[in-house]
Specification:
Layout lengths: L3 E2 L12 E14 L2 E8 L2 E8 L4 H8 L5 E10 L7 E12 L12 H6 L1 H4 L3 H23 L3 E2 L5 E2 L11 E4 L2 E5 L4 H11 L1 E9 L12 E10 L3 H28 L6 H4 L7 E3 H10 L12 H8 L6 E4 L12 E2 L2 E5 L1 E6 L4 E8 L4 H10 L8 H5 L8 E7 H8 L21
Parallel strand pairs: 1-2, 4-6, 7-11, 13-14
Antiparallel strand pairs: 2-3, 2-5, 3-4, 5-6, 8-10, 9-10, 11-12, 12-19, 14-17, 15-16, 17-18, 18-19
Helix pairs in contact: 4-6
The protein binds 5'-O-[N-(L-asparaginyl)sulfamoyl]adenosine.
5'-O-[N-(L-asparaginyl)sulfamoyl]adenosine binds next to strand 12, strand 18, strand 19 and helix 12.
């Protein structure tokens, strides 16, 4: 019995060794009395040569189509001309399932690729994105563990809005109305009273009709919430966490990132402290560049893209006007027009990847904000209770994982950063 190895494990030093590999036919060409198959598995690719004198294996190699699943046995041969400096002299080939015609060909359109996303996942380029996403979260977990944060598991079926009612997905919950969670924040706020520093990774849902390159209707949301932290404390957490995620992923997944990104400058510069500018300064910059925006207006993707031209790393914009931000954000005691809120924007045009704030910890002010927003304090009774029984200053934030992946991987749309994207027009596959 020969043990199965991965493509990446086959090294030139193993010259003469017998190996067994399992994977999919990535490329195939016939030259004279030889068939060259490039085998693909989750780790990478390797070239396998079948010669006519190999008989059965050669005949099978000739007959397999692209993306067929196969098991191969052969002998390792170092060869500087091979794509990975090493190849395999094929001796046995078992076709697990032969594919005559794989529906995805070179000139497939983006829309078609999304229609057959379940097959698109064969692609090593897609795999590179998913590996980077997994590694970013692995890094996040490493950082969160060593910095003493507890992972918690909040509900997805909820009764109230966090980020405004207009983007809630409604569903029938027996004979009541329920929603899909937009953010775990309110539940994380409840959890800090026993655990102080908590985090969760959950799917979040937004019925956003906006068809931009940064909106999904379902995205993965990494959220942190901490007792005894003010806005400036939580910004430090954000920059340390994000820089660790990026630096660690650079260290472990450089090759995968290179699939899409040629220039690593901004990733390398993702180290604390990130630049911080106030909303007022952001408006000044935008106006000086001829953008028509007045103090008090929200910044959209276009305004953010222009702002990102000023920075070579992620940066913060803080001190937004209160009325354009969510009800739970604490009013700035030094300027009641403003909220103690900050977004983290990624460079190179990407814009917002994190929204965060200090939370309003006064019961009266929070009730007033809920009323001002036209909402019913009765719907937030349990949340308001948190301000009655041992209320503490606290802060938190939410990071959109697909947005971070899209920036790190230099993708043109967040939909490429998730296995099966959900958008207003796409619910299948
Ligand atoms: O709406 S956020 O700005 N803020 C919150 O939901 C807070 N309640 C989070 C918290 O403090 N715990 O969303 C946070 C991030 C935002 O910066 C984006 O990166 C991402 O979530 N986000 C999205 N990603 C993809 N698609 C959509 N539609 C989307 N909406 C937000």
């Amino acid at each position: 019995m020969i043990d199965k190895v991965y493509c990446v494990d086959v090294k030139p030093e193993m010259e003469g060794k017998k190996v067994k590999l399992a994977g999919w036919v990535y490329r195939k060409r016939e030259v004279g009395k030889k068939v060259f198959i490039v085998l693909r598995d989750s780790s990478g690719i390797i070239q396998i040569i079948f010669r006519k004198e190999d008989g059965d294996a050669y005949q099978k190699a000739k007959s397999t189509g692209i993306e067929s699943s196969v098991v191969v046995e052969g002998t390792v041969k170092a060869d500087p001309r091979a794509p990975t400096g090493v190849e395999i002299q094929g001796e046995r080939l078992e076709i697990i399932q032969n594919v005559e015609f794989f529906p995805i060909t070179k000139d497939a359109s983006d829309e078609f690729l999304l229609d057959v996303r379940h097959l698109h996942l064969h692609s090593p380029k897609v795999a590179a994105v998913m590996k980077v996403k997994a590694t970013l979260m692995q890094a996040a977990r490493e950082w969160l563990l060593q910095d003493g944060w507890y992972e918690v598991f909040p509900p997805i079926l909820v009764t109230g809005a966090v980020e405004g009612g207009s983007t809630l997905f409604k569903l029938k919950y027996f004979d009541r109305q329920a929603y899909l969670s937009q953010s775990a924040q309110l539940y994380l706020e409840a959890a800090i009273f026993g655990l102080e520093k908590v985090w969760s990774l959950t799917p979040s849902f937004r019925a956003e009709k906006s068809r931009t390159r940064r909106h999904l209707t379902e995205f993965w949301h990494l959220e942190l919430e901490a007792a005894w932290m003010d806005l400036w404390d939580i910004l430090k957490v954000e920059e340390e966490l994000v820089s660790y995620m990026v630096q660690r992923t650079l260290e472990l997944r450089r090759g995968d990132i290179e699939t899409f990104r040629k220039d690593f400058t901004t990733l390398r510069k993702t180290v604390p402290p990130f630049p911080r500018i106030s909303y007022d300064e952001a408006i000044d910059i935008l106006q000086s560049k001829g953008v028509e925006i007045e103090w008090g207006e929200d910044m959209g993707a276009d305004e953010e893209r222009i702002l990102t031209q000023e920075f070579e790393s992620p940066f913060f914009v803080y001190g937004y006007p209160k009325h354009i931000k969510a009800f739970y954000m604490k009013e700035d005691p030094e300027d009641p027009r403003k909220a103690l809120a900050a977004d983290m924007l990624a460079p190179e045009g990407y814009g917002e990847v994190i929204g965060g704030s200090q939370r309003e910890d006064s019961y009266e002010k929070l009730v007033q904000r809920i009323l001002d927003e036209g909402m019913d304090p009765k719907d937030y009774e349990w949340y308001l209770d948190l301000r009655k029984y041992g209320s503490v200053p606290h802060s938190g934030f939410g990071l959109g994982l697909e947005r971070l992946v899209a920036w790190v991987m230099n993708l043109d749309h967040v939909r490429w950063a998730t296995l099966f994207p959900r958008t207003p027009s796409r619910l299948y596959p």
